[in-house]
């Protein structure tokens, strides 16, 4: 795998966790290896994402309407991260509820290390 590209994914997910958690002072990061598969979880205590929008967040330029006035950005970071993980034969997904924060996870498989 391309170390710099995967590093960019982690930096983007961490930046988003901080950006969308203005009242929080902690972001949890977990990394685990099981059966040669690496999983990275980045969990924030931020504003969260609605269930109806969680499936759209990896689309290019997608942005929840309520974020437009409060947070600046082009909203292509998640799209780029998703594409990078996919091109490494990995998987990127998110779990979230409004007001409770979000968890972004990605997995990589051993054949690319």
Q: Based on DSSP secondary structure assignment, what is the total number of beta strands?
A: 4
| Dominant shape | globular
Could you tell me the mean pLDDT?
Answer: 85
Structural class designation: alpha+beta
Count of helical segments?
Answer: 3
> What are the secondary-structure elements, in order, as H or E?
HEEHHEE
Radius of gyration: 14 Å
Beta-strand share of residues = 25-35%
List the strand order in the largest sheet.
1-2-4-3
Low-confidence stretches: none
Largest sheet: 4 strands, antiparallel
Helicity range:
25-40%
Distance between the termini: 6 Å
How is this structure best described in words?
This protein is of the alpha+beta class. Helix content is 28%, strand content 26%. The protein is built from 3 helices and 4 strands, in the order H-E-E-H-H-E-E. A 4-stranded antiparallel sheet has the order 1-2-4-3. Strand 1 (28-34) and strand 2 (37-43) form a beta hairpin. Helix 1 (3-19) packs antiparallel against helix 3 (77-87). The longest helix is centred in the first third of the chain and has 17 residues, at 3-19. It is globular and about 35 Å long.
